[in-house]
Design goal:
Elements: H1 2-23, E1 68-73, H2 94-104, E2 117-123, E3 135-139, H3 145-162, H4 169-175, E4 179-185
Parallel strand pairs: 1-4
Antiparallel strand pairs: 2-3, 2-4
Signal peptide: 1-20
Keywords: Signal
């Protein structure tokens, strides 16, 4: 009888252990591990409750910001030419917004510099207008001040020529106040 009880207990323990192993999953992609009190290494914090049944799949704050980023080249590649066509309808998606902004860009003709890069950051209101002037966040190092001023003036005049953008109600509400960062790249072959 004791042998039967021992075999039954061993079967129960092995069933519970097999069930626990079967339910273990790696809930976090990119080889991160959730935090544990016993871990001494860096980990990814999770927001699971110890009272939840089953495996815990944590919600992770991924390192994506709330801003929208876009790169505009003066001479787009053949594969990207379609992205530079101005939409013929009200802007309803982020892709439409980016295509409109790309189509508005006109680089400076006086004082150009090959390889010049400049980034600005700004926000739109619901009506498609700018909330304040674009703020310069990056310019190619070692560039004279007059060249930077020329490019910044070209960026400001290109954006003003597009305004006000015609957002649909949904996109206008979603974009209002969100920062948009645009990197302008002058990839023209100048002087050749």
């Amino acid at each position: 009888m004791w042998r039967g009880i021992l075999v039954f207990l061993l079967l129960m323990i092995s069933t519970v252990a097999a069930d626990a192993q079967r339910r273990q999953i790696n809930p976090i992609p990119f080889a991160h591990e959730p935090c544990s009190v016993l871990d001494g290494q860096p980990c990814t914090p999770s927001y699971c409750s110890p009272l939840e049944p089953g495996p815990c799949i944590p919600e992770i704050d991924y390192p994506y910001g709330q801003n929208l980023q876009l790169t505009i080249e003066t001479v787009p590649s053949e594969a990207d030419r379609a992205k530079y066509q101005k939409p013929d309808h009200d802007l309803d998606t982020i892709g439409d917004l980016f295509a409109e902004l790309r189509s508005c860009w006109s680089p400076p003709s006086d004082n150009p510099r090959a390889g010049m890069q400049m980034s600005v950051r700004f926000s739109f209101n619901r009506a498609g207008g700018l909330i304040g002037p674009p703020r310069l966040t990056f310019a190619t190092p070692g560039v004279p001040a007059d060249t930077r001023t020329t490019y910044l003036d070209a960026i400001n005049s290109s954006l003003k020529a597009c305004l006000p953008l015609k957002f649909t109600g949904g996109l206008g509400g979603a974009l209002a106040g969100r920062p948009i960062a645009i990197r302008y790249v002058d990839n023209r072959e100048l002087g050749k």
